Amino acid sequence: MTHRQVLEALTGLLAAFFTAILSSTIVANALPTIMDQLHGTQTDFAWVITAALLANAATTPIWGKLSDLFNKKLLVQLSIVIFVAGSVMAGFATSIPFLLTARVIQGIAMGGLTALAQAIIGTIIPPRERGRYSGYMGAVMAVGTAGGPLLGGYIVDSPLGWRWTFFVCVPLAVISLILLQVTLKIKHVRRPAKIDWAGSVLLTSGVSLLLIWVSFAGQAGYYDWISAESALMVGGSILLLAALLFVETKVSQPIIPLKIVRQRTTALAIIASVSVGIAMFASSTFLGQYYQVSRGATPTEAGLLTLPMIAGNLAGAVISGQLVTRYGKWKRFLVAGAALLIIGLGLSGTLSHDTSLTLVGVYTFVFGLGLGMMMQNLVLAVQNTVAAKDIGAASGSVAFFRTVGGAAGVAVLGAMMGTRVTTLVTEGLAAIGIHAPAGGGGAQLDLSTMPEPVKIIVRAAYGDGAAMIFAISAVIAVVALIAVLFIKEIPLRRTIDVVDMKQPGARGR
Asked: Which pLDDT score is estimated for 340?
């Protein structure tokens, strides 16, 4: 494909990818209104997010494997159709169970859109030229991840209402469907296809059980981290995943090819991706909460205040992608990105409820820059080491572990933040002679009805709690730095597929 054909094809792909990312973040600022109108509980609030994440994480490697077996163009179009159906269902939801079902359907489609977009790019563009195009994808991810809450806040505050946070993604998906049909021309090589159904079921069950455990352990009304329920859920998850490993060594076309995961580059990239996933989801989840609760910003204002992070992520993805294409070197950008991520998150760990917003913007720009330099370059490093027939499975595996790591990390960090905020609020109230009830009430987010002294205590508690989350994320990001330091840099090949250099006529990289 010529450069112009690639850009035309990417238009539809990026529209689909943007729709998937946007749909997962746009609902954040609409949830309080949705819970009020559908009479949902705090548990329902958590599950509206968790349901989509579970479906996304569990199906990403399945979609990736299917893309190696079947026509990638048809699969990505199928995932768009599924997404539109889920979005329309969510927009018309009249009850919490109906909404959760729609969110699962959306999550399944989001897993497909994420994995297939990366697999198609790996199919039509050689690794040596893929850097700048991956940079475009990273930029779209940055805008969708951080811009979703801004758009969602605006829609909720407008006459359109919360249902349009779901409906607004439908025309984007339809446009991407049409663009893909017109512009994407890829050749599908037919070969015997056999789906690893046992592996798919074990993977989905094991991961879902683990994430459900992490989502609710330690929360009031559920079970403790160390309890019989935790032992059963963790033990069950371990057994299911152990069975998955056994099955994957026996089947001819495993859902997660162990030969790929065992490769040094892929294994280290997966470790780094888990760490990056935690940083990415934590920044989008807790930064918005910091601005709204600790700094008193409206949903729309909180979205605007995340623009420095978006700008950093955008710059890191695009600039590093262009430089990777120009010089063919990618490891230096992974190392630099991990270092910037640690620095930015570490600086954000010093935040309080009265930190200068200019400083907050600088800190978030720095870790946004690090995220942009790492996310797509990790996928590129893995794709460069595998044959074209395995690109879907390899890309899906990296995205899978990033999503699982992010979902689990956010759940654990959220529980830690809740405990920290409750403790700080209880201590603060005691200092001014107010006895907090059992449980502390630290999770109260509606500050408008609070007396000013109490409001100051709650704002300070959420500021310190957010700072703790960022500091912990900085420590976790050190794991990403160690992992990328040990990745061996392999020159980016100029061919779509791996070329056997011993064969006559083989071209050099």
From this structure: 94
